[in-house]
Amino acid sequence: MKERGIKQMKTIWTVKGTHCNACKMLIEDVCSETKGVTSSTLDFKSGKLVIEHNANADLKALKKEIEKVGAYKVSE
Ligand SMILES: [Cu+2]
After folding, report:
1. How many domains does the chain have?
2. Per-residue pLDDT tens for 4-53?
3. How far is the CA of 3 from the centre of ligand 1 (A)?
4. Domain that holds residue 23
5. pTM over the 0.70 mark
6. Per 3-state DSSP, what percentage of the chain is helix, strand, and coil (rounded to 5)?
7. How far is the CA of 57 from the centre of ligand 1 (A)?
8. Spacing, Cα 48 to ligand 1 middle (Å)
9. Integer distance in angstroms from the first to the last C-alpha of the chain?
10. Which of 1, 4, 8, 74 has the most CB atoms around it within 10 Å of its CB?
């Protein structure tokens, strides 16, 4: 959800354990359900996850959530 007037930030993580498009969709879905996250793109081949968000985003919780939905390991 985009909130007007709130500064946007970009965070890049590496997610280990992603191997197909289903992983990509699952993880992007988890990101999109996180408050304060405006967009996310995961390249499942490299595991590079680009998250655009604002200061309201709880990235700690997001990281936990990603590791909970599959055999993934997030490194910052
Ligand atoms: Cu997969």
Report:
1. 1
2. 677 899 999 999 999 999 999 999 999 999 999 999 999 999 999 999 99
3. 31
4. 9-75
5. yes
6. 30, 30, 40
7. 25
8. 14
9. 23
10. 74
